[in-house]
Amino acid sequence: MTATIASARKPAPRRASMYGPAFVAAIAYVDPGNFTTNFAAGSRFGYLLLWVVVAGNLMALLVQMLSAKLGLATGRDLAQMCRSRYSRPVALGLWAQAELVVIGTDLAEVLGGAIALNLLFGLPLPVGGLITGAVAFALLGLETRGYRRYEVAIAGLLAMVIVGFLFDTVLAGLDLPGVAGGTAPRFSGPESVLLATGILGATVMPHAIYLHSSLTSLRAPSLKEASPGPLRQGPLLRLVRRDVLVGLGLAGLANAAMLVIAARLFHPSGRPADTLDDVHAGLGDMLGQGAGLAFAVALLASGFASSSVGTYTGQVVMSGFLGKSLPLTVRRGITLLPALAVLFAGVDATHALVWSQVVLSFGIPFALVPLLLLTRDRTVMGALTNRLLTTMAASIVAVLVVSLNIYLISQILFG
Question: Cα(387)–Cα(14) distance, rounded to whole angstroms?
Answer without folding.
Answer: 25
